[in-house]
Amino acid sequence: MTKLKRLRRRLDQMTESTYSILRGALLLTSTMALCALVLFSHSGGPTIAGFDAYKTAHELMSLAAITLLIATIVSVIIEEVTMKK
Description:
The protein has 85 residues and is an all-alpha fold. The chain is built from 3 helices and no strands. The longest helix is centred in the C-terminal third of the chain and has 34 residues.
């Protein structure tokens, strides 16, 4: 429970720009994940007929994870620069 309190305190102290970046990244990532889920269900698995849709969905999921990682790194850098001032 103490880790959750520390996390909540850290989130409360975020700057507006960092919060906007994280919020936008979460919205974008969840949208990409939803689209990938729809493509996965439409493709029918890794078969020859649905391989293009399957590969697109797989790449979309990878891109969603990378997007969230980059946004998190940028947010941490902005927070650290802001805290030093």
